[in-house]
Specification:
Layout: E1 4-8, E2 11-12, E3 19-20, E4 35-40, E5 46-52, E6 57-63, E7 65-72, E8 77-84, E9 89-93, E10 98-103, E11 109-114, E12 123-125
Antiparallel strand pairs: 1-9, 2-3, 4-11, 5-10, 5-12, 6-9, 6-11, 7-8, 7-10
Amino acid sequence: MDGVILTPLKQIYNPKGDIFHAMKSSDNGFAGFGEAYFSIINQNEIKGWKKHTKMTLNLVVPIGEIEFVIYNERNKEFFNVKLSKNNYQRLSVSPNLWMAFKGIEKYNMLLNLASIEHDPNEALNIDLDKIRYEW
């Protein structure tokens, strides 16, 4: 989907605790740095739909498994992917695409390396039933 990049990421085994790469400024999808935050999504819960108008999202799931669904309202196209330790990739989402996500495991955490700082006036939110998707 135009505006979406899926990037395989490195996991480095260490007997005292593994290392999970997330992003470097030289990576494809890097659009600047505004803030980084973690978000928890409970099992079988869905957060969304949200559309950022300026922010580029860079999403990584180091714990649990999360299904992400991106919707392009211009051409009615969906993109979905499940990210986890076993499918360790970074999902970069450009502005003006709708996104929702669902927790698959009992405990799920994502990291967003956002291109700009949070601004409550920069994003649009609509109810889940406004965009039809079969979870």
